[in-house]
Specification:
about 130 residues, about 75% helix
């Protein structure tokens, strides 16, 4: 029950995030590291990946597709971590301290949790919980 509820919550989070990547890409463009080629296209396709992943983990018909979507979302969250780190560095170097540590530290800590959550809610892993016998 908890896994299903968190799966729907994560799917909703990614669906909303994907929507904003597609409809309001400017904030995502500003945190994209300079070394990323074609940033507008990368932001667009990350939005598509979020939406497709959200649909994949929330669909009830195929556990294999759900697992594939969970792995995809975990890899996605890992791949966008440099943008979050870049945002942290850029924001904290502002004269006013930007959004501050109270915003950025939980976000940095949440990233590995989101990676694990995508794998767990999709049924890819049961770690650290024991499967029911």
């Amino acid at each position: 029950m908890i896994r299903a509820g968190l799966r729907w919550l994560l799917a909703a989070f990614y669906l909303v995030a994907g929507y904003f990547h597609l409809t309001a890409p400017a904030p995502f463009m500003t945190i994209t590291p300079e070394w990323v080629p074609w940033p507008a296209e990368v932001v667009f396709w990350t939005g598509v990946a979020e939406i497709v992943g959200a649909i994949g983990i929330s669909q009830p018909w195929s556990p294999r597709l759900r697992c594939a979507a969970g792995i995809g979302l975990a890899l996605y969250a890992l791949s966008v971590w440099p943008a979050n780190i870049n945002h942290f560095a850029m924001d904290m170097s502002r004269a006013d301290g930007g959004l501050g540590l109270a915003y950025h530290m939980p976000r940095m800590i949440a990233q590995p949790v989101i990676i694990w959550l995508a794998l767990w809610v999709s049924g890819t892993t049961n770690w650290p919980f024991r499967p029911k016998s």
